Amino acid sequence: MLDSMGVPSSPTPTASFDPYPPVTASDHPSFIGMEDQEQSHAAIVSLSPADPAQRSTAYLVAVGQSYQLPSFSLPKFWGEVEAFPAFWSVFSVAVHNNITLPAPVKLLYLKTCLRGKALDLITSYPIAASYPHAVRAILAVYGCPDVLRSRLLEKLAQMPASTESIPAQFTTLSALRGLWSQLQHLNEDSGSISTLNIIQSKFSPRTRQKVDELKKAITYTLTVEVLLDVVEIALEQQSLRSTEGA
């Protein structure tokens, strides 16, 4: 809700995210002898470790079972710390928390999704009984909140300032909202003066001046969420005046 000056009367609430639909699986077990199992596992191990997708298919054929994941494609993760939360949230729903999948199959799916240095981290893990160890290794490197927070704040500081163009500033605003959304999940201080100053510095002098004018009407604590809303208002007002003057 906006007041008479166009300033938000209260901080914008964080929208709740509806995760992916329940995972379903089709399980068709077949009974095979120990000798056949040993031969099948030997065939899997003989496949190239660099081709986890082939090994995944071979394992499912070997154990005589078929599994079906949701229709969307699993994301790939290349080892960028700031991209890990988005990757893991999808992988957890589709694979990690899928009780119909045995651990060896989960490991094969994980290896299929990883790329580069992230895959190198767990390439040497054998198929049998290694999934929990592989997950711990991945989370230890990429799931540390302090490391992720530091990387995101560094990315925020290094983000180039926008040009004078209103569309370009809207693009910058969108990028800042996305970055701050990740920091929010890490409980970053939304009232940090340094963070507020860094965010405002990403816009043109004219926009910063308009933001300072709008902030004078705010009677509650200024937070990053409020600042981003104020910046949006300032940009919309400039865009409207530009259209009227055309």
From TrEMBL:
<feature type="region of interest" description="Disordered">
    <location>
        <begin position="1"/>
        <end position="22"/>
    </location>
</feature>
<protein>
    <submittedName>
        <fullName>Uncharacterized protein</fullName>
    </submittedName>
</protein>
<dbReference type="Pfam" id="PF03564">
    <property type="entry name" value="DUF1759"/>
</dbReference>
<dbReference type="InterPro" id="IPR005312">
    <property type="entry name" value="DUF1759"/>
</dbReference>
